[in-house]
């Protein structure tokens, strides 16, 4: 008996595990060993049968005994596939991979090639098991995110903490979280402080410090001491529930590449079947020494290699890998379609406050004229204690030694500032208009300051000023530099802040095009103008709240710090779960790597299939060669897709 070759692919370990490319070939929660048992049985019986055939060890191993042996070897791996093919046939879906493999292997039995028939189906099954393992591994990061779902909450009821399901906790109730436990619901911290691990949600390994009254989110882990939290959202409205829903539905939004390949497979498969029929019968009219068995054998080879399963699974597997890698890095894509869209972006528009700046005012400079700086700040802070303006909060963070001064008779002068009495002295705090209206000369040096400036006069004499500025995020400059490196040359900043401040920040970041003083509708108009040029593929990065219209209008909307923002999750296509703009660069790199791998798999699968189809039709390849070529393509595609899990995009 001549040595021949074999094919990998599709196995249904049991009837409850419904095979579907759409579900990622997930074979349920059964043990891995049970899943492999049918393939192991068939493999052992096949090897024994081939050994007996080859060495002629048992003379009685012929005729019906040989047929029965190979039939029993075929059933564990063949029956589930034939069953699926029959189900598809009843539904009217004839040209499936199950149909192809069933016809090819049964055909091998009909012409007496029993070992080949078993081997084709066995390796088809083994290949499918490899694919299942690869898909599950690719889904690993997404599953890890789903695993952050808290299972119970310790809620304070009837003077004691009791354990209940997070879904049963009401807004306003107090919950306790012990060290190492996950926070089950969104809330505000009642304890003095807490150290939280947010890695599962944000991809950041560095612990986050939280103080009394600050927000905490479900899914984060308490690290240091027992803490208490007041619940602010029902579980179904919590950040983690929304994110889980987003991640679970991400794979349903398929890319155009995936949809195209699936549609192509539905056309390609019947064409191959009819070509195989042609390979069997057409040579009868043109070949002198036509032998039906030989041409049927070539047609069966044709069917084996034509099976599109490897092609169809390797593409979603690539996107699974991309989505999983992104979630591991604290980046949530709402679907594979946005992974594709991100690769085409060539124009990036960004908000300023909260995107490249921290959105928190800080004192940049204190200039006291004729006063000691500390005493000057004590007068100013006494006045600002009467205000709730963000600038006042920034000033009150100044650490001044000595006793606190107290302001009396404080009144607000609309659009200008404050007037009051501190230590018996009249104090004016505000803008230049306030100084001018009180005939107080302001130094010309203040004219060149573009940041927010607070002017101070004491007893009708100019006493100094404080410059307040929003700080750049630590990775803001690095982000712009790296965006240029990855080919995003057209970067634009749009801000509602003063144009002078916007221009200064843009200059610091090396952004050439910037506009300030814009309302949300103005930003939307700017993006619409950019989109009128069909060459521009526009991404907008904003905070997901006041920028919702622009996020929705962009080709790709990217929300910063989306963990606690309802609007970000509702409106944006991509959510950066931290406040790091540098992760936008990583999102671009991940999407490009994913698309590259998907296309490598497509080209590899098509290339090898076409070559072996031609060789098979010409009688230059046996079924074993066809099988191993097909198996090789499937395994290479799988290994290539799994590479996404190991890549580093720093």
UniProtKB/TrEMBL annotation:
Main EC class the enzyme belongs to: translocase
Domain of life, source organism: Bacteria
EC numbers on record: 7.2.2.12
Gene3D superfamilies noted in UniProt: Calcium-transporting ATPase, cytoplasmic domain N (3.40.1110.10), Calcium-transporting ATPase, cytoplasmic transduction domain A (2.70.150.10), HAD superfamily/HAD-like (3.40.50.1000)
Principal place of residence: membrane
GO function terms (MF aspect): ATP binding; ATP hydrolysis activity; cadmium ion transmembrane transporter activity; metal ion binding; P-type zinc transporter activity
Region described as Disordered: spans on this chain: 1-27
Cellular component annotations (GO), alphabetically ordered: plasma membrane
A family per Pfam: E1-E2_ATPase
Keywords, comma-separated and alphabetical: ATP-binding, Cell membrane, Hydrolase, Membrane, Metal-binding, Nucleotide-binding, Translocase, Transmembrane, Transmembrane helix
InterPro entries documented for this protein: ATPase_P-typ_cyto_dom_N (IPR023299), ATPase_P-typ_P_site (IPR018303), ATPase_P-typ_TM_dom_sf (IPR023298), ATPase_P-typ_transduc_dom_A_sf (IPR008250), ATPase_P-type_domA (IPR059000), Cation_Transport_ATPase_IB (IPR051014), HAD-like_sf (IPR036412), HAD_sf (IPR023214)
Signal sequence extent: none
Domain P-type ATPase A: 149-248
Catalytic activity as recorded in UniProt: Zn(2+)(in) + ATP + H2O = Zn(2+)(out) + ADP + phosphate + H(+)
Location in the cell: Cell membrane; Membrane
Record's compositionally biased regions (Basic and acidic residues): 7-27
Xref: PROSITE patterns: ATPASE_E1_E2
Transmembrane segments: 35-52, 64-82, 94-112, 118-135, 267-287, 299-320, 597-617, 623-642
PANTHER family noted in UniProt: CADMIUM/ZINC-TRANSPORTING ATPASE HMA2-RELATED (PTHR48085), CADMIUM_ZINC-TRANSPORTING ATPASE HMA4-RELATED (PTHR48085:SF5)
NCBIfam families reported for this sequence: ATPase-IB2_Cd (TIGR01512), ATPase-IB_hvy (TIGR01525), ATPase_P-type (TIGR01494)
Family: Belongs to the cation transport ATPase (P-type) (TC 3.A.3) family. Type IB subfamily.
Name this polypeptide is given: P-type Zn(2+) transporter
Source organism of this protein record: Winogradskyella ouciana
């Amino acid at each position: 008996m001549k040595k021949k070759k074999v094919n990998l692919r599709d196995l249904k370990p049991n009837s409850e595990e419904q095979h579907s490319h759409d579900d990622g070939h997930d074979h349920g929660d059964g043990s891995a060993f049970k899943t492999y048992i049918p393939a192991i049985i068939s493999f052992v019986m096949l090897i024994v049968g081939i050994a007996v055939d080859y060495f002629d060890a048992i003379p009685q191993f012929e005729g019906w005994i040989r047929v029965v042996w190979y039939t029993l070897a075929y059933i564990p791996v063949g029956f589930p596939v034939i069953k699926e093919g029959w189900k598809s046939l009843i539904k009217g879906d004839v040209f499936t991979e199950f149909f192809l493999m069933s016809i090819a292997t049964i055909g091998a039995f009909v012409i007496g090639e029993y070992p080949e028939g078993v081997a084709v189906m066995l390796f088809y099954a083994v290949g499918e098991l490899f694919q299942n393992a690869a898909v599950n591994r690719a889904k690993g990061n997404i599953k890890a995110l789903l695993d952050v779902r808290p299972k119970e909450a310790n809620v304070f009821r009837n003077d004691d903490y009791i354990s209940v399901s997070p879904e049963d906790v009401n807004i306003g109730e107090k919950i306790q979280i012990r060290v190492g436990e996950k926070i089950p619901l969104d809330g505000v911290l009642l304890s003095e402080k807490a150290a939280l691990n947010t890695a599962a949600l944000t991809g950041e390994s560095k612990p986050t410090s939280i103080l009394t009254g600050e927000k905490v989110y479900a899914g984060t882990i308490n690290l240091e001491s027992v803490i208490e939290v007041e619940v602010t959202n029902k579980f179904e409205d919590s950040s983690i529930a929304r994110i889980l829903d987003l991640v679970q539905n991400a794979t349903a939004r398929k890319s155009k590449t995936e949809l195209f390949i699936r549609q192509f497979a539905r056309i390609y498969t019947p064409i191959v079947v009819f070509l195989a029929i042609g390979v069997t019968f057409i040579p009868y009219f043109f070949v002198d020494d036509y032998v039906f068995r030989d041409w049927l054998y070539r047609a069966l080879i044709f069917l084996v290699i034509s099976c599109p399963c490897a092609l169809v699974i390797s593409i979603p597997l690539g996107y699974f890998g991309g989505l999983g890698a992104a979630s591991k890095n604290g980046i949530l894509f709402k679907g594979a379609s946005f992974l594709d869209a991100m690769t085409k972006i060539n124009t990036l528009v960004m908000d300023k406050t909260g995107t490249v700046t921290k959105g928190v005012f800080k004192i940049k400079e204190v200039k006291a004229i004729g006063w000691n700086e500390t005493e000057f700040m004590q007068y100013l802070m006494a006045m600002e204690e009467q205000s709730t303006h963000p600038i006042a909060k920034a000033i009150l963070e100044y650490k001044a030694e000595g006793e606190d001064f107290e302001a009396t008779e404080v009144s607000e002068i609309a659009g200008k500032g404050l007037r009051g009495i501190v230590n018996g002295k009249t104090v004016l705090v505000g803008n230049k208009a306030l100084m001018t209206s009180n005939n107080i000369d302001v130094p010309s040096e203040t004219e060149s300051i573009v940041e927010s400036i607070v002017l101070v006069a004491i007893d009708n004499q100019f006493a100094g000023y404080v410059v307040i500025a929003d700080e750049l995020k630590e990775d803001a400059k690095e982000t712009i530099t790296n965006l240029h490196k990855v080919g995003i040359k057209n970067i634009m900043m749009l801000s509602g802040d003063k144009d002078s401040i916007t221009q200064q920040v843009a200059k610091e970041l090396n952004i050439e095009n910037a506009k300030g003083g814009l309302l949300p509708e103005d930003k939307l108009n700017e993006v619409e103008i950019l989109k009128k040029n069909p060459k521009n593929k526009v991404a907008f990065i904003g905070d997901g709240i006041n920028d919702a219209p622009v996020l929705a209008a962009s080709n790709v909307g990217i929300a910063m710090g989306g963990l606690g923002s309802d609007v970000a999750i509702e409106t944006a296509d991509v959510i950066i779960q931290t406040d790091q703009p540098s992760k936008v660069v990583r999102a671009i790199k991940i999407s490009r790597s994913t698309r590259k791998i998907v296309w490598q798999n497509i080209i590899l699968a098509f290339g090898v299939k076409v070559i072996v189809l031609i060789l098979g039709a010409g009688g230059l390849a046996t079924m074993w060669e066809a099988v191993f070529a097909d198996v090789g393509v499937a395994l290479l595609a799988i290994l290539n897709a799994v590479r996404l899990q190991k890549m580093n995009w720093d």
